[in-house]
Amino acid sequence: MEYEEPKFFHVMQYAGAADGDVIDMVSGNPDWEPPATLREALREYADLPSAEFQYPPSEGLLELREAIAERRNVDADRVVVTNGTGEANYLAIARAFERDAGDEALLMDPVYPYYPGKTDMLGGESTLVPTERDGGLDVDAIREAASEDTALIVLNTPNNPTGAVYDLDAVREVVAVADAVDALVMVDEVYDHFDLTGEFESALMLDSDRVIVTSGFSKSMAITGFRVGYGIFPEAHVGDAKTRHMLVNVAGARPSQYAVHHALAETPPSYYAEARELLADRVDAFTDALDAAGAEYTRPEGAFYVLARFEGFPGTMENVKRLIDEAGVAGMPGDAFGTARGEWIRFALVTPRAAEAAERLADYFGD
Ligand SMILES: Cc1ncc(COP(=O)(O)O)c(C=O)c1O
Signal peptide: which range, if any (predicted)? Predict the structure, then answer.
C-alpha cells in the first residue's frame, strides 16, 4: 500500500531538531489536565481482580456504551466503542464502500488528511469539495459534486483545520443530497465539546438512517493516548461495523474504557466549560497578535486551530521551516489539508505558550 508519511511527522521532527527554542503549534494534544476522576479510576483499576484484566466485550464495555447512548440519546445497540475516533472513522468509511453503492467519498476542502488516506486505503476515490472562505459548508457545491458513484459524504464539525462549526440546517441539506444519491454521511464530531458556544448541535439530532456519527474522548478528556472513541451507526449498518471492529482488533483496551466510563459518569459540565474558556482566551490572544502581524485568518468557532495567511509568505513546507528557524514557532503547512489552503498555515492552540507564540509571530511579521 502506498502512503505518504503525514507532513505532521516531518514538521515535528524538524522542529525537534531545530537549534533554538521552538513553540509547538503542530500537534493536537491537549495540554491541560484530564478529569480528576479519570486518574482515580485508573488507580482503582490497578487493584481489581485479574478477571478484570481480560478481554472486554468486543463492541466495548456495556456500561460505557450505555453511558454514551444516554448522553447521545440513542439506543446502546447502535454504539460501537473503538480505538479512538480514528477507528470509528475507518469503520464508517469501510461500511460506506462495502455497500456496492459507489466508490467515491466527497470530502470537504480543506480536509483532515486521514480521510483521503483511509478512503484510498479502502479502495475508494476522494473528491475534494470546496467550502466557504470561512470554512462553512457550501451545500450547492456538494450537490453539484454528488452522483450515483458517491458512496459517502464526510463532514467534520467543529472542524479541523478551519475551526468552523456547521449549521445543523446545512448538515440536514447534505443528508438530503446523500438521500438522493444513496450515500451515507459520516459526521466526525470529535471536537463536539469544543464548540466555543458550548451549545453544539449533533447530527444525531437529524435522526437519519444515513448518518454515522463518530466521536471520542481524546480531546474532550485530554487523553489522546488512551484510544477511546466510538461510532454511532444506523441500525442497518451497526452489525457490519461491529464485525469489522472485532476482526481488526478483537476488542479495545479495557483499562482505558473503564477509566473513561468513570470519568464520563462523574465529571461535571464545568470541566468541559473550563477547557472551552481556556481555548477562547487563547483564541483572543492569538488573533490579536495575528491582527498585529497583518495576517488574514478566520476566527475559529470551535476545535483547537487557527488558519492564518501572511501576505508574501505562503504556507509551504519551506516557509513553515523558516518560521521554525527564524521565529521559533512551528505550525502546519496549509497544503497538508487538501488544495484550498495552500497559502495558509495552521496553528494548534493546545499549548500553554500560545500567547508567547502569538507575540513571536507579531514581532516577526509586524512592521
Ligand atoms: C478531525 C479529527 N478526527 C479524528 C481525530 C483522531 O481522534 P482520536 O484520537 O479520537 O482517534 C482527530 C485528531 O486530531 C481529528 O482532528
Answer: none
Question: Distance, CA 214 to ligand 1 centroid (Å)?
Answer: 10
CATH 3.40.640.10 occupies which residues in the chain?
A: 36-266
pLDDT for 5 = 72
Average confidence (pLDDT) over 261-273: 97
- The CATH code of the domain at 36-266 is 3.40.640.10
Q: Report the pLDDT value the prediction gives residue 367, as an integer from 0 to 100.
A: 67
Distance CA 256, CA 45 (A): 10
CA distance readout (Å), 256 to 38, 275, 309: 9, 21, 39
At residue 185, φ and ψ (nearest 5 deg) are: -120, 120
Which CATH topology does 7-34+270-365 take? Aspartate Aminotransferase, domain 1 (3.90.1150)
Centroid of ligand 1 to alpha carbon of 86 (angstroms): 6
CA of 218 to the centre of ligand 1 (A): 8
Neighbours of 281 (CB within 10 A): 13
Q: How confident is the model at residue 240 (pLDDT cuts 50, 70, 90)?
A: very high
Proportion of the chain above pLDDT 90, given as a percent: 93
Neighbouring residues of 206: CB distance < 8 A, sequence distance ≥ 6: 168, 171, 172, 175
Q: Rounded mean pLDDT of the chain?
A: 96
334 Cβ closer than 6 Å to some ligand 1 atom: no
Q: Where in the chain is the domain with CATH 3.90.1150.10?
A: 7-34+270-365
The amino acid that residue 188 corresponds to is D
